[in-house]
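Checklist before submission:
- one chain only
- standard amino acids only
- sequence pasted in full

Submission:
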Amino acid sequence: MTTADKTAILFGATGLVGSELLGMLEQDSTYSKIKVFGRSKPKFTSEKVEVFIGDLRNPERLLDNLTGHDLFICLGTTIKVAGSKKEFRRIDLELPAKVAAMAQANGVETAIVVSSLGANATSNNFYLHTKGEMEQKITALAFEKVAIMRPSLLLGNRSEFRLGEVISRNAFKVFGFLFSGKLKRYRPVQATAVAAAMHKAANNSHTGVVIVESEMI
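Returned file contents:
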């Protein structure tokens, strides 16, 4: 494939990681087009960016436009923001799995997905169990390449207020020196670093499934 022949597909471009990733993809000359799907317009666009705005409760309507080469999924919320466990599962599990399945059926070869530190489908923790289920569903699809990012607490300028993140961020400023050795994976990670790891994963030569743990980001 020659330079500027690739099309990226991005879900979650208005979020903490997705907004950073959009800027990186826009600057990458290997992508001639970036298809952005979401409920609202991202902070910036360019001639390369094609925006599809609408309610994602019925992703089937997106099928004809889910074509390209690299799928990036940066979808995620909290139970508090979602309002219920059912809505949380819809956003963090059902929607990513559905759009990934449709994209793969349309010939998309690569899926790069943000999950969470500790994601495990057998966990008794609802959040981690849901993230683990999402990983299972996407890695079971016949993509040539899948990369799962498992970041710890994300740092960055989030548009919505999350009290837990504020408390954790302030605690890290004081006790950050403790997060070394085996505890390194629990260090908060910058959203820009996660976006950069996703961008790198899409452009490297590996095939199959790769799990990128937080300490590797």
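Reviewer check: Residues 85-105 form the longest helix (21 residues).
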